Amino acid sequence: MRDSALIDHWDFDLGGTLFDGQPVSCIDVGDIPTVLHDNAGNRVRIESKTREVLAIPAVPILLGGNDSVVIPFLWGLEDHGPVWVVQIDAHIDWRDEVHGERHGYSSLMRRASEMAHVVGILQVGLRSVGSARSTEIEAAQRYGSRFVTAREIHAFGMEPALRHVPEGARVVITLDCDGLDPGVMPGVAARAPGGLTYSQVIDLIAGLGTRTRIVGFDLVELFPPADIDGLSAQTAVRLLVDVVGTIVRQV
Known about the structure:
single chain, 251 residues, alpha/beta, Arginase, Chain A, 6-stranded parallel sheet, 8 helices, 15% strand
């Protein structure tokens, strides 16, 4: 990352330097080794690494993979609840199974709703036609998931979404890159017009940092082959910087 030498420079999105004058407190623990087709084993490895990071203690940040990696990431937070899950996504990911797979990328939020330490779900940026049928919508609504569409955010800003999460709650943010508009995040597998802007997403992150305690973050579903001139990668990096800076300021 070419900006890594600039951590002592003023960041206007954060209102100060990345670490806010404090010592550098971010550690890259490396890639989690995964094995093709060993889905169950991969989930064990992701959950185990998450638990290791939490034991330091630290706030775990997971980068890469599709939405399915978030399921074991959330399992790893089992002893650190109760938590709310705030999902930024174009889709609700509430399928119970797809072709016999119950832990795939379309089932993330259904599996999250079954975890005892997850006490609430907010889903932001929903739009267009996704994988959800009426049965999935009904299941999510029975659980009590709060839906906030991208159109609502464009019309009313982020404050109505933030009000759904209780002040002081412990929050895990899961960011699917297709939650953003393809104009700023084209490198995704399922582009849908009308998504959130970069500014709207950082408003959500900043708002959660002020109202709640962010205890985990993941950024998934970045698809480099579909990127245009590195735009998606640049946006993803900026979002990561905003999350790190927000977490630093809440400690």
